[in-house]
User: Fold this.
Amino acid sequence: MPISSLPEGTDALMAELSFGEVMRLIERTAKWVDAETFNLLPVWYPEHARQALFYKANWSEPQMNTNRQTGISTHKSEGNVHANKALTLALGLRSDGRKGWSCCHLWGVDDHTYQQANVVVQDPRFFSCVANMVLLPTPLKAFTDIVPEVKTMLRICARNTYRWQCDHTKMTGVNAALDAWNDWTDYPESWPREPGSSAPMGTMPNSNDIRESADRRWSRIQSDMEKAGPHYPRDSVRQVLKYWGSDLAAPLALARAK
Assistant:
C-alpha cells in the first residue's frame, strides 16, 4: 500500500535526534553579535522594516518590480535584506563570506505556517536590531522556525547576553513565559543563565572593522536625515532612535544615552 503522506520534515529529524543533540548543534554553530557591538549601535537600518517599500535614487523614486510575462509593475518591498546586512556587518563578516548561513530573528510572531503578519519585524525598532538576530547554518534555521523550545532557549540566551528583550505588545505573553521558564536540562552549557554572566559560544568579538562599519552606518543615517530624498522616513527614524536612546546629533561613540 503506497504511503499517502510523510511526517513534517522537522518532526522526522527530531525522531532521529534528541532535543539535546539539536541544541548542541545550535550551540556549536550559531554566531552571535558581541554585546559591546549591540550597545554601540543597536539598530543599523532604522529606515527599514519588513514589508516597507524600497526607493532608489537616494529615496527619491519608487523601486519597481516588473513581471516579465504580464508587464505589470509593483512597488518592491523589504523581505529580509537589511536585517541580513545589519547582522553581517555587526558580526564583522562580508555578504559573500557567509554562504549557507541564515539570519534568524529571535523575537517575532511565532507562526511556522507563515500565515500571520509578523508585526514585530515590521516594526523598524526591531527589524535590524542586532540583539534580535542570530546567524545559523541554513539547515538548522528550520528548528528555530518550528520547534518552540528551541526559540525559547535562543531568546533566553539573547536576553541574558544583551540584557534586553523585545517589548513589542505582541511579545507580552512570550516574555511572561520566559520569566517563568526554568528547565535548564538541554540549555547549552556555554550560554548565559543570568544577565551578563557570560557570552555564548560563537560570539564574534567587537573589532576595529566592526566599529568602523558602525561609524559609517551612523554617519549615513545622520547624512540621510538631512540629504536623502522625500521618501526617506525621517519621522519614523527619529522615533526609532528615540526608543533606543540615541542622540542623532552626536558622534556614534557618544550617541547612546547612558
